[in-house]
Automatic annotation (TrEMBL), chain A:
<feature type="transmembrane region" description="Helical">
    <location>
        <begin position="226"/>
        <end position="248"/>
    </location>
</feature>
<dbReference type="InterPro" id="IPR035906">
    <property type="entry name" value="MetI-like_sf"/>
</dbReference>
<keyword id="KW-0472">Membrane</keyword>
<comment type="similarity">
    <text>Belongs to the binding-protein-dependent transport system permease family.</text>
</comment>
<dbReference type="Pfam" id="PF00528">
    <property type="entry name" value="BPD_transp_1"/>
</dbReference>
<feature type="transmembrane region" description="Helical">
    <location>
        <begin position="198"/>
        <end position="220"/>
    </location>
</feature>
<feature type="transmembrane region" description="Helical">
    <location>
        <begin position="28"/>
        <end position="49"/>
    </location>
</feature>
<feature type="region of interest" description="Disordered">
    <location>
        <begin position="270"/>
        <end position="289"/>
    </location>
</feature>
<keyword id="KW-0813">Transport</keyword>
UniProtKB/TrEMBL annotation, chain B:
<dbReference type="Pfam" id="PF00528">
    <property type="entry name" value="BPD_transp_1"/>
</dbReference>
<dbReference type="InterPro" id="IPR035906">
    <property type="entry name" value="MetI-like_sf"/>
</dbReference>
<keyword id="KW-1003">Cell membrane</keyword>
<protein>
    <recommendedName>
        <fullName>ABC transmembrane type-1 domain-containing protein</fullName>
    </recommendedName>
</protein>
<dbReference type="InterPro" id="IPR051393">
    <property type="entry name" value="ABC_transporter_permease"/>
</dbReference>
<feature type="domain" description="ABC transmembrane type-1">
    <location>
        <begin position="91"/>
        <end position="297"/>
    </location>
</feature>
<feature type="compositionally biased region" description="Polar residues">
    <location>
        <begin position="1"/>
        <end position="10"/>
    </location>
</feature>
<comment type="similarity">
    <text>Belongs to the binding-protein-dependent transport system permease family.</text>
</comment>
<keyword id="KW-0812">Transmembrane</keyword>
Length: 289, 297
């Protein structure tokens, strides 16, 4: 017994002296983190610099790490040669509709699965969570057929409908509602409020953090979605931003400053949500499965 | 917490509903209410996943070109896929990607999370720089990859040149294309595994680590014997999750090789586009850059 304690104390002393001996003015972890952070930052930094470079400079070898002077000509030709504003508008419509709809439908469904008792609840919930595992490729063709029968193909609706509600959103909201005490709702129910009333007046105001998380993930998913719009939308008037960018990469292949200007515009809105992402409590799933 | 809530609810709402007639009415009302809450979202999610998945299965058993009357074909579509060399190419490319990407992304996430889980200076900046690529879309990553790894003007080859190493073919080289895609996937998704590990690390009770230190464990021992076992369940989740993601790889391959593709005659039926003759083929046979280029050259 006493030997363990002594050994422990000795180890503690040893640790302390070792720390004192090799004390750097900063933590040793910087040696790992600084290069890694720079490595992670380089692609986006290059993108940003290239968007501000004169077009000709980017086709020289060796490529300059930093442009000789900054110019907005890439952005200028982007606005002249592409429908970027239309694409941006389309993406804004898709994202905004998706976020609002996801927040409403998923919080209703999440609350239903968390608190209400009804026949078929558990089966339906397991089925919904299980859909996360279905690979998107399996669904592409039947979904295309379904949407073409609904007359949604080649319209913005095709990009919006899959994002109206997501399995991830339902799951996220259910987990949140399970974590808040039911007593609050009981009080409301005893006072004679209806379920709907209790949900809207008492529960939803408490759900702001979960709703914020849901909104961020829906924004990221809907804003960045490429595969499905690529299949469903062939009409240049209904192009989303991602579709436009993927498409004119083929057209303006070597006009890097123009391409990068488009990418900066496509990335800025979603990257502005990354500080929120860092602080959000439950970032569990990056995309629609 | 939840069980307490439920038992309270059972008591308060159960008392007046003892009589059978009312309890039936109450059950019906409860069921309608429950479905009212969950139905709108459920219809969308199930209607766009389980329903099409079943339809895909039915289609896979038929011969159908999208216009004529579908004919039952049994497993002949599957036989067609299995004997299609292009399909096996795609399977091999996907397998290579999975084998490289899944362990690397989980491992990188663990290291980054351990490193970022300190209270040192600039830690906020480090976290931001490592997390930001996560929000970058596949379309943008594709353009960036083509820019950075361009054989002639790309900065990566330039750096190799400065270091005195030979320039590489990267995306134009069949053997290296998948490596480039793995690198860029790691860049874009390391934040995800890192964030999950970071949350798991912060959930480990400080007393555990303290107790190990007092018992004389050094830092490496503490990590191997105390911290790592605590991360087991999260690691399992991440491996499964990354596996599911990796098997579905499509968008980054599409966006990175599009630029390369435009220099060559384009195959009309490369990807998931429109051909419906054998839905399962296009539903499972994912193109990968080397697969596309190999079949074209």
């Amino acid at each position: 017994m006493s030997t363990t304690v002594q050994a422990g104390l000795r180890a503690h002393d040893g640790e302390a002296t070792r720390r004192r001996k090799r004390r750097l003015p900063f933590s040793g972890w910087h040696f790992l983190l600084l290069p890694l952070a720079i490595l992670f930052a380089i692609p986006l930094l290059q993108m940003f610099l290239a968007s501000l470079s004169p077009a000709a400079e980017l086709l020289r070898f060796p490529p300059p790490f930093v442009p000789s002077h900054l110019t907005l000509s890439g952005y200028q030709s982007l606005f002249q040669q592409s429908n970027i504003l239309l694409w941006l508008g389309n993406t804004l419509i898709v994202s905004a509709t998706s976020i609002v709809s996801n927040m409403i439908l998923c919080s209703f469904a999440g609350y239903g699965f968390a608190r209400l008792k009804f026949r078929g609840r558990n089966v339906l919930f397991v089925a919904i969570v299980g859909t996360i595992m279905i690979p998107t490729q399996v669904l592409m063709i039947p979904t295309y057929l379904l949407f073409s029968r609904l007359g949604l193909i080649n319209s913005l609706g095709a990009a919006i409908v899959p994002w109206l509600a997501t399995a991830f959103g339902i799951f996220l909201m259910r987990q949140f509602f399970l974590s808040i005490p039911a007593e609050l709702e009981e009080a409301g129910l005893i006072d004679g409020c209806s379920r709907l009333h209790v949900f809207i007046r008492i529960v939803l105001p408490l759900a702001k953090p979960a709703l914020a998380t849901l909104a961020i993930f829906t924004l990221l998913g809907a804003w960045n979605d490429l595969v499905w719009p690529l299949i469903a939308i062939n009409n240049a008037n209904a192009f989303t931003l991602q579709l436009g960018i993927a498409n004119f990469q083929g057209v303006h292949r070597t006009d890097w400053s123009l391409l990068m200007a488009g990418n900066v515009i496509a990335t800025l809105p979603s990257s502005s949500s990354s500080p929120l992402l860092r602080s959000s409590s439950s970032p569990r799933c990056p995309s629609r499965g | 917490m939840t069980t307490v809530g439920n038992s309270v609810k059972g008591r308060t709402s159960g008392v007046p509903k003892r009589r059978p007639g009312r309890s039936l009415a109450a059950t019906v009302r409860q069921t309608l209410e429950g479905w009212g809450f969950v139905a709108p979202a459920s219809v969308i999610v199930v209607g766009l996943s389980i329903f099409p998945a079943g339809w895909a299965f039915v289609l896979s058993l038929q011969h159908w070109n999208g216009f004529s009357q579908p004919e039952f074909a049994g497993v002949s579509n599957y036989a067609g896929v299995i004997t299609d060399s292009e399909f096996w190419d795609a399977v091999v490319h996907t397998a290579v990607y999975v084998v490289l990407f899944v362990p690397l992304s989980v491992f990188a996430g663990m290291i980054l999370a351990v490193a970022l889980n300190r209270k040192i200076r600039f830690i906020g900046l480090y976290r931001t720089l490592i997390f930001v690529p996560f929000v970058v879309s596949a379309a943008t990553t594709g353009v960036l990859t083509n820019y950075l790894f361009d054989t002639q003007f790309g900065i990566v080859n330039h750096v190799l040149n400065v270091l005195g190493l030979p320039a590489q073919g990267w995306l134009t080289d069949q053997k290296q294309a998948m490596v480039v895609i793995v690198i860029m996937s790691l860049w874009g998704s390391a934040a995800f595994t890192t964030v999950i590990y970071l949350a798991a690390l912060q959930d480990i009770p400080a007393e555990l680590v303290e107790a190990a230190t007092i018992d004389g464990a050094n830092r490496v021992q503490t990590f191997w014997l105390v911290v790592l076992p605590q991360l087991k369940s999260v690691s399992t989740f991440l491996v499964i999750w990354q596996l599911v993601q990796a098997i579905q790889l499509f968008d980054l391959v599409y966006t990175t090789t599009r630029g390369v593709r435009s220099m060559r005659p384009r195959r009309s039926s490369t990807t998931c586009g429109t051909p419906l003759s054998s839905s399962w083929t296009s539903a499972t046979g994912r193109p990968s850059p080397t697969c596309c280029s190999a079949s074209r050259s």
